[in-house]
C-alpha cells in the first residue's frame, strides 16, 4: 500500500491575547495509505480535530510537515487552493452548519464538479447521481437542506465531498451529531465508499466502539500527541500505552452484566501548561518515578505498532 | 424496597401547528426506592417529555392524563404551588449539558445553596457548610475554593458533578437524570456513572436515568424501559432486556451497536428512521421498520403484556419468544 497522507512532527498553536500560545497539537505523527481507514480517537481537547484540520490545510501549522500524494499541503490562504489538493477533502461534524440553507442541494453538491471544469448542466446531472449513490432520492437535487433529517443531511455533505473526486477524506466526528440509527448507516456508507473508490479516510471520533468496528488502524491522541498507533485489532486486544488501556476500559458494554466502567482519575490537563516528562504521568496508574522527567517519543514496536511509553514493549 | 413512584397510563399531548399530538402515549412503570430505573430510546421517543411531565415542566399548552403517584400524592394532579415544593426538594433533576444547566454568572455557592435555603429554610452559614460536604461527596477537589468559583472555571465533567451536587442539596428521594453523560468523554462518563451508583447505595436514592446509550444502561440500571414512538416497547430487569430482548426494536437497537469484540466490518442499523411527533404510524408504532411485522401489526396498538417475571413486552406476534 502506498502512503497517501503523511504528517510528521506537526504542531499547531493558537495565539491568544495576554497569554502564551496554546499548543493544541504538539509533534503529532500520522500516516494514511490508500484504501485504509485510520481511526483517530482521544478525549475532547486532545487536539484530534485540530490535527484533522491541519492535515487538510484548514489550520496553519507552527512546525512539522504534511504531505499529500507526495506534495506538501499548504495552509488555506486567500488564493485558490492548489489543484493538486482537490483530492484531499473534509467531512464536518454538524450537517446543520456545513450546508448552506439557502442553496439547492443539487447546486451545493455540484460545486466540486464545477471546480473540476464541468458545465453547470453536467454538474447538476452528476450531483443527482451522487445523491443516489449516497442513498437519497434523485429529486433531492431540487430541494433545500431543511427538508432533510440529520442523517440525510450528512449524506448530502458526503456527496458534496465526493464531487471533488477525492482520494482522501478527513471525517471529523461525522456521525456524532446524528441519531443512533442514523449513526450506524452513515458510518457504513463511509466505509463502503472508501472501499469502493479506493480512498483513504481519517475517521476522527470520540466514540471508541465505532472506531473499533470500522477502522483498519487506530491512532490514540492525548494532550496534543499521538501516544499509540497500530492495527485496530491489536491496539484493542493488547493496548501498549496505559492511556489506551484506560480509554478502552472506560467504555461501558451493553451486555446486561451491570459492570461499572473503570474510571480514569483526573481531568485532561490544561494544554497551555502540559505536565513535564510524559504528559500522561499525573494520571497514569503505572507511572515510574522517571516518567516525571523523561518525555517518551512515539517509538516503533513491532507489527506496524508504535507507542510513546517507556513501559511499552 | 418500597415503590417510590408509580406512573400509570401517562399520556402527554404537545401543542403543534396541527393541533395536539401525543408525545407520550399510555406509559406505565414504577420506580422502587434506591433503584436505578433506565428509560431508553432514540430522540423523539418521548423519554425526556416523560421526565418533564413528572416535574411539571412541560412546555406551555401541553396537556397530560393518567397518574404519577409519588410518596402517595399524584404529581399530575398537583397545583403549580404544591409541585414547586416537591421539585428540587424530593425530586431533583440533572440535565444533559452542565454548561447550560448551571448559571454562568452565579458562584457555585449560590447555586448549590439556593435550594436548601429556599426549601429547607437553612441559614447562610449552615448552607455553606452543607455545600462543602456536598461538593466533597461528588468529589470536587478543594470544595472551599470551588464555592467561590464560577462554572466556567471547571471542566465539563466537574460541572456535571457540581450539577449533581445542586440536585442533591435537599436530599431528594428521586433523581431524574436526562442523558447525564452524553456530553462527556468516556473516561469522565465512567466517573459520573460510578458517582450515581455510589449515591444510590449510600443515600437510598432512586435514580431515573434517561439515555439512548445501552452501554450506560447496562452499567447502572436495575430495570429498563425501552420506549418507541411515545410508547413502551419493552420493560423489565436489565439483564433480561439486554441479553434476551423480546421486542424486535430492542433487538434492533442492540444489533446496531458496534460488536464488543470488533468482528464484523459493518454496523447493522435498523432501516428507516424513528417517527416524528404527530407522525406515529397506526397500529404498532414500530411496524414500518420491523422485519417481523405481520398484517395485524398495522391495525392493532399492542399493549405491554407480561412475558416473564417483571418483564412486559408490547409485541403480540412475539417473534423472539422462541429465543428466550
UniProtKB/TrEMBL annotation, chain A:
One of its GO terms (biological process) is transmembrane transport. Belongs to the ABC transporter superfamily. Keywords: ATP-binding, Nucleotide-binding, Transport. Residues 5-248 form the ABC transporter domain. The keyword Nucleotide-binding applies. SUPFAM superfamilies: P-loop containing nucleoside triphosphate hydrolases. GO terms for molecular function: ATP binding; ATP hydrolysis activity. Pfam families: ABC_tran, oligo_HPY. It comes from the Bacteria. This is ATP-binding cassette domain-containing protein. CDD domains: ABC_NikE_OppD_transporters. It comes from Herbidospora solisilvae.
From TrEMBL, chain B:
InterPro entries: AAA+_ATPase (IPR003593), ABC_Ni/Peptide_Import (IPR050388), ABC_transporter-like_ATP-bd (IPR003439), ABC_transporter-like_CS (IPR017871), Oligopep_ABC_C (IPR013563), P-loop_NTPase (IPR027417). It holds the Pfam family oligo_HPY. It is a peripheral membrane protein. Transmembrane segments: none annotated. Residues 5-254 form the ABC transporter domain. GO terms for cellular component: plasma membrane. Keywords: ATP-binding, Cell membrane, Membrane, Nucleotide-binding, Transport. It comes from Herbidospora solisilvae. One of its GO terms (biological process) is peptide transport. It is found in: Cell membrane. Signal peptide: none annotated. This is ATP-binding cassette domain-containing protein. One of its GO terms (molecular function) is ATP hydrolysis activity. Residues 302-313 have a biased composition (Basic and acidic residues). Residues 302-324 are annotated as: Disordered. Belongs to the ABC transporter superfamily.
Amino acid at each position: 500500500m502506498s502512503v497517501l497522507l503523511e504528517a510528521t512532527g506537526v504542531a499547531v498553536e493558537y495565539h491568544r491575547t495576554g497569554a502564551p500560545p496554546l499548543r493544541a497539537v504538539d509533534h503529532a505523527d500520522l500516516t494514511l495509505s490508500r484504501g485504509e481507514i485510520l481511526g483517530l480517537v482521544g478525549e475532547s481537547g486532545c487536539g484530534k480535530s485540530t490535527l484533522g484540520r491541519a492535515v487538510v490545510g484548514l489550520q496553519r501549522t507552527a512546525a512539522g510537515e504534511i504531505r499529500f500524494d507526495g506534495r506538501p499541503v499548504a495552509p488555506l490562504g486567500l488564493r485558490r487552493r492548489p489543484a493538486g489538493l482537490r483530492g484531499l477533502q473534509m467531512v464536518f461534524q454538524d450537517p446543520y452548519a456545513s450546508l448552506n440553507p439557502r442553496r439547492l442541494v443539487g447546486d451545493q453538491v455540484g460545486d466540486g464538479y464545477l471546480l473540476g471544469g464541468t458545465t453547470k448542466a453536467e454538474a447538476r446531472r452528476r450531483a443527482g447521481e451522487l445523491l443516489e449513490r449516497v442513498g437519497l432520492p434523485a429529486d433531492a437535487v431540487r430541494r433545500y437542506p431543511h427538508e432533510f433529517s440529520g442523517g440525510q443531511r450528512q449524506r448530502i455533505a458526503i456527496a458534496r465531498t465526493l464531487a471533488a473526486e477525492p482520494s482522501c477524506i478527513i471525517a471529523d466526528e461525522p456521525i456524532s451529531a446524528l441519531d443512533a440509527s442514523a449513526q450506524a448507516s452513515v458510518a457504513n456508507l463511509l466505509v463502503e465508499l472508501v472501499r469502493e473508490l479506493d480512498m483513504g479516510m481519517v475517521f476522527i471520533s470520540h466514540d471508541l466502539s465505532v472506531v473499533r468496528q470500522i477502522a483498519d488502524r487506530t491512532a490514540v491522541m492525548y494532550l496534543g500527541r499521538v501516544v499509540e498507533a497500530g492495527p485496530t485489532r491489536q491496539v484493542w486486544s493488547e493496548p501498549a500505552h496505559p492511556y489506551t488501556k484506560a480509554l478502552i476500559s472506560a467504555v461501558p458494554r451493553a451486555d446486561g452484566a451491570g459492570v461499572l466502567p473503570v474510571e480514569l482519575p483526573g481531568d485532561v490537563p490544561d494544554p497551555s501548561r502540559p505536565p513535564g516528562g510524559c504528559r500522561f504521568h499525573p494520571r497514569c496508574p503505572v507511572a515510574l518515578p522517571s516518567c516525571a522527567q523523561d518525555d517518551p517519543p512515539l517509538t516503533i514496536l513491532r507489527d506496524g505498532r508504535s507507542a510513546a511509553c517507556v513501559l511499552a514493549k | 424496597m418500597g415503590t417510590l413512584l408509580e406512573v400509570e397510563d401517562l399520556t402527554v399531548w404537545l401543542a403543534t401547528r396541527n393541533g395536539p399530538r401525543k408525545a407520550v402515549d399510555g406509559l406505565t412503570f414504577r420506580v422502587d426506592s434506591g433503584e436505578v430505573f433506565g428509560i431508553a430510546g432514540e430522540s423523539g421517543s418521548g423519554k425526556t417529555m416523560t421526565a418533564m411531565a413528572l416535574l411539571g415542566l412541560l412546555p406551555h399548552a401541553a396537556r397530560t392524563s393518567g397518574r404519577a403517584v409519588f410518596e402517595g400524592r399524584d404529581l399530575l394532579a398537583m397545583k403549580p404551588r404544591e409541585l414547586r415544593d416537591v421539585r428540587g426538594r424530593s425530586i431533583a433533576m440533572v440535565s444533559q449539558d452542565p454548561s447550560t444547566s448551571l448559571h454562568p454568572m452565579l458562584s457555585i455557592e449560590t447555586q448549590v445553596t439556593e435550594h436548601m435555603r429556599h426549601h429547607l429554610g437553612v441559614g447562610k452559614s449552615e448552607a455553606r457548610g452543607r455545600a462543602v460536604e456536598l461538593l466533597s461527596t461528588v468529589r470536587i477537589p478543594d470544595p472551599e475554593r470551588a464555592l467561590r468559583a464560577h462554572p466556567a472555571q471547571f471542566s465539563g465533567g466537574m460541572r456535571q458533578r457540581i450539577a449533581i451536587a445542586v440536585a442533591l442539596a435537599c436530599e431528594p428521594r428521586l433523581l431524574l437524570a436526562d442523558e447525564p453523560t452524553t456530553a462527556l468523554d468516556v473516561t469522565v462518563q465512567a466517573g459520573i456513572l460510578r458517582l450515581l451508583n455510589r449515591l444510590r447505595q449510600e443515600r437510598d436514592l432512586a435514580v431515573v436515568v434517561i439515555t439512548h446509550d445501552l452501554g450506560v444502561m447496562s452499567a447502572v440500571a436495575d430495570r429498563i424501559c425501552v420506549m418507541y414512538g411515545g410508547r413502551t416497547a419493552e420493560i423489565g430487569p436489565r439483564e433480561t432486556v439486554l441479553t434476551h430482548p423480546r421486542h424486535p426494536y430492542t433487538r434492533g437497537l442492540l444489533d446496531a451497536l458496534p460488536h464488543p469484540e470488533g468482528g464484523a466490518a459493518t454496523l447493522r442499523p435498523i432501516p428507516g428512521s424513528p417517527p416524528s411527533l404527530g407522525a406515529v404510524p397506526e397500529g404498532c408504532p414500530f411496524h414500518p421498520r420491523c422485519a417481523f411485522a405481520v398484517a395485524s401489526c398495522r391495525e392493532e396498538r399492542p399493549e405491554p403484556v407480561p412475558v416473564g417475571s417483571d418483564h412486559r413486552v408490547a409485541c403480540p406476534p412475539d417473534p423472539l419468544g422462541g429465543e428466550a
